[in-house]
Structures are given as structure tokens and as C-alpha cells.
Amino acid sequence: MVEHQKNPQDIGVIYIGADCEKMTLEGIDVEDLKERLNVPRDKLIILWVGRFSNEKGPLYMVKAIAGLNVTKPFHVVAIGDGHQLQACQDFVELHGLTQTVTFTGALPMEEVKRYMAIGDILLMTSE
Hints:
Blueprint: H1 30-36, E1 44-49, H2 58-67, E2 74-79, H3 85-94, E3 101-105, H4 109-118, E4 121-122
């Protein structure tokens, strides 16, 4: 910006991302948490967290899940809300994946943090 003759005092940086200090998973008993959250203990947990909107790509997520050909049992937990949530739920139902995908809706950050502790894979589909 300085190169474009902007006053350096008028320039600020806005960091986007997670505050790692707030996202610590220390002290979380993963097996107990899986049981309390009713998440299968014997399956690989794939976690998707985001707004169910075009730019976050939730339809990519459910289509990818439908196309998986794996030998290890897995379960998907999709956290968030938005205008594409119903379309994703309909897709999951149409493809017989209701036992494989759990939609939680929007959750407070503390609850999201708990789910992140049990996730084995974080799936991101943002454009």
C-alpha cells in the first residue's frame, strides 16, 4: 500500500483465522466426548465446519461423501447453518447417507471446539 502512496499510518492488517490459544484441545477426553455427543466410537470422524452457503461449498462436501469408496468405516459431522443446509440434507437422504452424516446446525464456539477434538479429518470446501 505504501508503494501506492498510501499513508503508512492509515494501513492496518486484519488477520483472518482461528485464535490458536482459544482453540486448545488440552484436557478433552475424546472417547468420553464421542459417547456424550452420540458420535460413533469405531469410525473415522470427518468434520466439516462452515456456513451452508455457495462460497463455503457444502454441496461439494455431501457429493464427495457420496462418492467415497473406502474400506474404513467413517462418519461425517457437518456443523453450521445457512440457505444450502436443506439442499444438503435432501441430498444425504436421497443417497441413503442419513446414518453416515450428522448435521448439527449452528453451534457455539465452545461446542465446535469439542467436535474438533473428536474429528480425525477436517474437510474444507471453501472456494
